[in-house]
Specification:
This protein is of the alpha/beta class and 247 residues long. The protein has one domain: Rossmann fold, CATH 3.40.50.720. Helix content is 44%, strand content 15%. The chain is built from 7 helices and 7 strands, in the order βαβαβαβαβαβααβ. Strands 3-2-1-4-5-6-7 form a 7-stranded parallel beta sheet, sandwiched between helices. Helix 1 crosses helix 7, helix 3 packs parallel to helix 4 and helix 4 packs parallel to helix 5. The longest helix has 27 residues. The protein is globular.
Length: 247
Amino acid sequence: MRLKNKVAIVTGGAHGMGEAEARLFAAEGAKVVVADILEHEAQIVAADIRAGGEEAMAAKIDVTSESEWVGLIAKAVATYGKLDILVNNAGISGSSVGDPDGLDGWHRIIAVNQTSVFLGTKFAAEQMAKTGGGSIISISSIMGFVGSTTGHPAYHTSKGAVRIYSKAAAVRYGPSGVRVNTVHPGYMPPMLNATNAGERAEKIAATPLRRIGKPIEVAYGVLFLASDEASFITGTELVIDGGFIAQ
């Protein structure tokens, strides 16, 4: 098992890519904290993992809250004794706020997608340093590299900031044995579920592999970065997009 005896927190773990990551981590031997603002859904995922004979617990968190981050990490350590892995997976798209081009929408997207990564990375790294290190993986996006005609500027900005912040964090926390990397998914559920059939077909046609991705394909990339197999990898990006930004 690639994560045997490791303790992991996955934010946004109640659905989509976060759920796939939480389930895969548990199957690979990790004790998993399924953290999400959707507490009931997180409890369902954690219970299902436990029903399969693996270890998991649910926790509610607003990832924009400093105090809730402190509480989440304390809860994980109190329950499982340590923290080895954090996946900053929680995030929102521009379409999830009322006016993504207005100031309130800008602040909301930045808070959930960018500030949350700062908070999670800071407090997780401080905890990991006490036990010799760990791995932090933040889910960015291919939109953290490029602009688009369909995306919202705040979303692109937040995902680009996650990429650069994680490089800075890798440098800062590296001496403590903490690795920090980003994963950049391409077009896939659940974000693509909100698009119409025509736009979906356009995204597929624009992807060299001629299909959209699957959450489990991202989860396997995250698993690699979380594992000891990636012990000399930090401050870099893993793009999982079917070749979209290679063009």
